[in-house]
Specification:
294 residues; mainly alpha; two-stranded antiparallel sheet; 4 strands
Length: 294
């Protein structure tokens, strides 16, 4: 990225009406050292301020962007805590500080000792992400089952959390028997479901419209030979199609009520078994059970 070697030096007036320089400052209070022009002196851009004046883009000898990145990633006690909190939120469904992106004085950690220990361990081992992820995945809290009546900040049970757009797109294609990667579908789902680690899991009207009318999803459900929809449509009876559809989508058989309703639906479309299976698969793929975990 292109970056100028000059500019960016401004002053602001504090509550005491005093003019002060606006320096780059981290939340820890640490500042990024810069050489400011003296008095009213105006800066002049010149080739000698760049590592290679002929390069495209040119890199300044002093890069404010590089200095800020260095200050943020070295000797920054907040970095480890922010990272492990986000990893915890990603795998457990809620951050130790919640929301995960708002670590500030207003959002106290629910378990400060745990957050401090994870951050210290992560930092002491050279920011080893695999080590941190392994620790979370092997923990007892990650293995807990659902506990719908618990207080979410207690981490006494598994919490429902939405799949990301990329996870949804790949999962849809795997279920219908296609290769997982498809740029068109991934972009369409990401545009409709952009949030990652949303504060509250609550589908919007726009997302519901997308799930109901997405041409990209309809394309994946075409009854292509050898793929899931065509395979289920070729089964000899509706009971088999229902059972195999639930196994393909949910990796479990349907319960009694689910089996009855799905069977009644397929029987209504007995003259078009493949189309009936396609619509049943659509209903299962856009359900809350499929779009959320655990």
């Amino acid at each position: 990225m292109a970056e100028s070697a000059i500019g960016g030096f401004i002053n602001f007036t504090n509550l005491k009406k005093e003019s002060q320089p606006a320096v780059v400052t981290l939340l820890t209070g640490r500042t990024v050292p810069e050489t400011w022009p003296a008095g009213e002196q105006k800066e002049q851009d010149s080739d000698d301020k760049y590592v290679d004046p002929a390069a495209k883009p040119r890199v300044p000898k002093f890069s404010r962007r590089e200095a800020f990145a260095d200050a943020a990633t070295h000797e920054n006690p907040l970095l480890g805590g922010a990272f492990v909190n986000r990893m915890w939120a990603s795998f457990i469904g809620r951050g130790i500080v919640h929301p995960a992106d708002e670590m500030n004085a207003r959002n106290a950690p629910s378990h400060p000792e745990l957050l401090a220990w994870l951050a210290q361990d992560f930092t002491a081992h050279g920011y080893d992400t695999r080590r941190t992820i392994r620790a979370i995945l092997l923990s007892r809290v990650y293995a807990l089952g659902a506990a719908p009546d618990m207080a979410p900040e207690s981490f006494a049970g598994a919490q429902e959390r939405p799949l990301s757009a990329e996870q949804i797109a790949r999962s849809w294609r795997v279920v219908v028997g296609l290769p997982p990667e498809d740029l068109t579908l991934r972009r369409a789902v990401a545009a409709a479901i952009p949030d990652v680690l949303p504060k509250e899991y609550n589908a919007t009207f726009q997302q519901a419209q997308f799930l109901a009318n997405s041409p990209a999803l309809a394309e994946t459900l075409k009854p292509v030979d050898g793929k899931t929809v065509a395979r289920l449509g070729a089964l000899p009876d509706a009971e088999s199609r229902v059972r195999e559809a639930f196994l393909a989508v949910y990796s479990r058989p349907p319960d009694t009520e689910e089996a009855e309703r799905a069977l009644a639906f397929l029987n209504e479309h007995s003259d078009q078994p493949t189309e009936g299976v396609r619509d049943l698969m659509w209903a299962l793929l856009t359900s809350a059970e499929f779009l959320a975990m655990p």
